[in-house]
Amino acid sequence: xxxxxxxxxxxxxxxxxxxxxxxxxxxxxxxxxxxxxxxxxxxxxxxxxxxxxxxxxxxxxxxxxxxxxxxxxxxxxxxxxxxxxxxxxxxxxxxxxxxxxxxxxxxxxxxxxxxxxxxxxxxxxxxxxxxxxxxxxxxxxxxxxxxxxxxxxxxxxxxxxxxxxxxxxxxxxxxxxxxxxxxxxxxxxxxxxxxxxxxxxxxxxxxxxxxxxxxxxxxxxxxxxxxxxxxxxxxxxxxxxxxxxxxxxxxxxx
Amino acid sequence: xxxxxxxxxxxxxxxxxxxxxxxxxxxxxxxxxxxxxxxxxxxxxxxxxxxxxxxxxxxxxxxxxxxxxxxxxxxxxxxxxxxxxxxxxxxxxxxxxxxxxxxxxxxxxxxxxxxxxxxxxxxxxxxxxxxxxxxxxxxxxxxxxxxxxxxxxxxxxxxxxxxxxxxxxxxxxxxxxxxxxxxxxxxxxxxxxxxxxxxxxxxxxxxxxxxxxxxxxxxxxxxxxxxxxxxxxxxxxxxxxxxxxxxxxxxxxx
Lengths: 254, 254
Hints:
Chain A is α+β, with helices and mostly antiparallel strands. Helix content of chain A is 20%, strand content 31%. Chain A is globular, with a radius of gyration of 19 Å.
């Protein structure tokens, strides 16, 4: 059996997230179904991140244990041909961008050393309906300096219970955040990018951190408030959950 | 009763087209439902164009006969507040961009003098999955000069039976095309825009004309073939139906 690590890009707009769920259209479910039918063998993927409904990915990773004989360098092209859901366009909203042969026992999630997410905000007085699925559009000007001043409190190893949505599985809520940065794009100052890297993330953690930072940027919270929110370990003290469409899984580290 | 002409922009990705259909999510159906609930009066819209599932609009027009007292200049803002399907984002994928008071009897469709559609193609060897819903992505280089050479045959008053999808309602298939132009965008040569203006259009007409022109740009047809296709009045001689997502209703003329 081969163990293949795939790098996968997808537009999450049309999916109920990554993880397979009976009766729902999910990214993992669709890949398993389409590739299984194409190669006439059962296909099972293990993803590095269970992205939520509407969340996008540039660099999701998933391992595939398979007897498939396709040479590893041909896998992206062959898989993308199989995934093309429209003969006319030859294009899917899921794309395998890379494949690598891994030793037996390697697992996309358990062996990951961390992940980077990007949260994209469009901060313009004129919202663009065609970006609704890809940006959080905020029409009130955000004070980036205040948002940046709140970031250092998030970095480091902390109990992040305050940033976990209700209904999460029990377990330790200690995680390590390696870095958190916010900047306006130089080529388009309406575009704000929040980049966060960490060992692992709690359920909805990036979206709640973003919501809390946006409330800071709107002047509803002082930057130092972030320290108190984290120390409180109480979800009620943190901000709103930012919309799914602005979130992009950028990279998984090994 | 007032008669109000609305200008409407929408992202057609998530809709089964404009026209109301029982049990399906359509742009007209959603507007009627949301506005009716918001103002607590029945709302009925008559659109200028029955755009298909997945087709977008910058400038759809629709008339609304109503007793609603909202001043006309406030209608876009009030309607957009009602349409915002997410309190967090305050944004819908439908936007009313203008409203005008019209005399009794005026009708968005029957009084229109013509329409302009834009068909957007991304002609790049590297397709972008995030543009799947908004462009026809063609990876083989298109010969724009050949496509342009075929355009003059389409302009004018003709029987366009060849450009009508099977299953269309019976009736005259004579229409007048005022202009048809194709160009690469100067700021991004991968983007090709086909702009067509006409009195009215048959079912799938713009998408079949686009498909025929793309086959010309791929060298599968000579530009002069367009004249023979039209003269034949036979759908079988024309090209494929271009994907819905590339089509944008740009403007309706009165």
